[in-house]
Specification:
CATH architecture of the largest domain: 3-Layer(aba) Sandwich
CATH superfamily of the largest domain: NAD(P)-binding Rossmann-like Domain
Distance between the termini: 30 Å
Shape: globular
Radius of gyration: 21 Å
Mean pLDDT: 96
Low-confidence stretches: none
Order of helices and strands: EHEHEHEHEHHEHEHEHEHEHEEH
Number of domains: 2
Oligomer: single chain
Length: about 325
């Protein structure tokens, strides 16, 4: 019997060109959805007749309330090796296999590059200057230098270490904190370990690179934002849930911090009416940290390998 495959949230309509889906043969049919579902009910109606669903990272959520209403679903193939938007226990109860796929070798570098793009845009007033220049206004604000400033890194993993090396190349003083960071690991990265309070008090820019978990959710709350210097920036390319949304909006509105650069949001796609779109001291990018052609090609290639293995009854790369 023909297996039906749904590819979700292919925003650019490139999924079928970024990898070779033809290797799956005539035993499957593939349908691409470029627009996100507007509600759970719409999502369930859309996916009723599919055996396999390809989920791009955490673009579409699969809570139990969705999983339990998809009786035909047998394989949920996610890109990435983590996907907090999938209820794995609900999938186990329903007998649904959930697998993951690795990204490109330069995927982590791409996220760090996005963080630095946001950081530079904030310090150099790029968006404000571009808008002003096109309206006939010259030098609306002064830019800031990075050299000599303090870079605070929350989360000194693979991406955090890349951020530290680049910050040092800019001549910045780099400090770091995470719940489990040791002095030895910090020293190996050439940075100084500090307590959480000092990170937010001392840094001219704080960049977040923590894994979202129950212990790190809203790790940036009103307390941390209030501790920041009034001209300091917050950059988040990790997960939106690390930051208290209302607290950040209030801090920006009251000018308690200098600004923010965000690549991740509490609701994605971000509505054009969201309050963040109204601040001139905010730079927003649509979750581009992992959205490169190389990374998505690797993701989809890994998904195809998993689907082939599933069809053949072989071992898959399971989601962790």
């Amino acid at each position: 019997m023909l297996k039906r495959i749904a590819i979700l949230d292919d925003y650019q309509g490139l999924a079928l060109t970024l990898a070779d889906w033809s290797v799956l043969g005539d035993a499957v049919s593939v349908q691409v959805f470029t627009e996100p579902a507007s509600s759970e009910a719409t999502l369930v109606e859309r996916l009723q007749d599919f055996d396999v669903i390809v989920a791009m990272r955490e673009r579409t959520a699969f809570p139990a309330s969705v999983i339990e209403r998809l009786p035909r679903l047998k394989l949920l193939a996610s890109t990435g090796l983590r996907n907090a938007a999938i209820d794995l226990e609900a999938c186990r109860r329903q007998g649904i296999t959930v697998c993951g796929a690795r990204g490109a070798r330069n995927g982590l570098a791409a996220t760090a590059e996005t963080a630095w793009a946001l950081m530079l845009a904030l310090h150099k007033r790029l968006l404000v200057s571009h808008t002003a220049l096109c309206a006939g206004h010259w030098q609306p604000q002064l830019a800031q230098a990075l050299e000599g400033k303090v870079l605070g890194i929350a989360g000194l993993g693979h991406i955090g270490k890349r951020m530290a090396r680049i910050g040092q190349a800019f001549g910045m003083d780099v400090i770091a904190w995470s719940p489990n960071l040791t002095d030895e690991r910090a020293a190996q990265a050439g940075v100084r370990k500090v307590e959480k309070t000092e990170l937010f008090e001392a840094a001219n820019v704080v960049t977040l690179h923590l894994v979202l978990s129950p212990t790190t959710a809203s790790v940036v709350s009103r307390v941390e934002l209030a501790a920041m210097q009034t001209d300091a920036f917050l950059v988040n390319t990790a997960r939106a849930g690390l930051v208290d949304e209302d607290a950040l909006i209030d801090a920006l509105h009251m000018r308690r911090i200098g600004g923010a650069g965000l690549d991740v949001f509490w609701q994605e796609p971000l509505p054009s009416t969201h309050p963040l779109c109204g601040f001139e001291n905010v730079v927003l990018t649509p979750h581009l940290g992992y959205a490169t052609a190389e990374n998505l090609s690797a993701f989809y290639g890994g998904v195809i390998d998993n689907i082939r293995a599933w069809l053949d009854g072989r071992k898959l790369v399971l989601l962790s």
